[in-house]
């Protein structure tokens, strides 16, 4: 077969006959015409429709129309909603700082400030639109009409998404993520000057009200830590006749107690330090007339209001009051916590107002510097004379909260600035303002304590101001203040800031003595037992009194210190300890054999160092029958009021000695001894007693 085909392929085709070709073409044309004439109708049914189900015909028409309508509906819903959301964000946009925009921040490793990642913003902004488009597609797929989501729901979804991205960042930072186009600030927590609001003292509102399901920072009282210890026990004079403690002029505990009661809750007993409640109030104790001897002691012995078988020995110390004109120059560094936990109305906004009050109190030649810290420390204001007050105010007003809290680096930076502007023979002080939440960074509490101890040797002291609740680390605040030769205060209101930083500015800023210690020795012939009320966290060993290397509290210009002992006279039925079976329990001291100390109840000693000196001086005061009064009413007015405060503090701290002494009796004692009250502090105290009485009966 293949050979045949091969033969044929070699043959030459015959030439074309034109006539035959014409005949073939004509025949083909005639066949085509005949076929056209015979085709009267198209293939299929007579109407020309393709055979198809009536159901398919109806469905196809409905789907086509519905698809067009659904697409138009989705467009009408999504575009206005997206436009409304953009308008709301632009209208309510708050001023936020670089730290808030930079992205997710680790709790344990705060990076340095970075440029905002604006590329992430469009994806976040388009999230509501994408969600709505997906919903519209699902409507067409399921053939069920659904109502479009409202603009409020879209805004809620936006917040939740942003907060999920930023974790614990504030809501205003999340809403502003896609809008931020500003340069990085010079320090954490500072906004550019051109971005300040018209009212710098007011806190910027959150752009969107909290929606259900949004992540919010909740105040957790269990996170608050207080510096306290078990109440002082009753001690026998026969075995332990000497009591030694450090001076304490802080008033932070009273402010915290006041806030708790005003908020409708009894304070945590651990937050009550009775000595701080007593020393919170100004008293008119007799003071020294000359600065040569900076202190004067006044001792009063009176019956105990809550126990008829004991007595109170009231020791009042008044410091020399420096005239404002002779006050030394001040070099102050404001070390301000601008971490995320400070983003509360009673924290950073109150702090800014408080420092404005303080700056207004300073002299023109004083200097102010500002350092902020939130993970990283930054200098907001180099040392600036108070004469340039407007420049200082602008720096304060620019502060914004955001980030985690790492205090060690900020403390180092603040002390460096204080050293840079050091004033010889002046006041060089770092003023740390925080909610006490030092929870991030390599430094432990002991590391921070060590830093403070080293810096005080350079003549730079520390004052700690606490703000707000929920993160309050009172324990660390007290530790830093005590080791920094300074004081601690808790500012819960602007009125408290006025009291601490303006009315008591001299005692807060200008120390007249450091390392102030007290030691009281009781005469076993007259006194069987004693109990020091308060000062549990200030207790010292007996040998520490004469050791000038042991640190103690400081006292400022015009400040007063009050200490109260409950003492049990010899032979009183209130004696709690039995006489010793062995030893010389009933033997009189050898020094008393010549009658020199006959009639004395106790001997009060006080040691102190002048600022800039390392050797202490001694002041002594014997206490005898001449210091005693027969009745409570015979005691001086201020003594009785301070005793009422001591009773109230012990009652709140649940001291068993006052279990049967009612709040009403405390109120009566305080009301009868209120006296002159120019600032209303004592009237407010009476109100706190009534609140505690009511809350305790729940």
From TrEMBL:
Coiled-coil ranges (or none): none
Domain of life, source organism: Bacteria
Comp. bias (Polar residues): 128-139
InterPro entries: CLCR, Uncharacterised_YfbK_N, VWF_A, vWFA_dom_sf, YfbK_C
Residue span of region Disordered: 102-153
Basic and acidic residues bias (residue ranges): 109-118, 140-153
Domain VWFA: 331-509
Protein name per UniProt: VWA domain-containing protein
Lineage: Bacteria, Pseudomonadati, Pseudomonadota, Alphaproteobacteria, Hyphomicrobiales
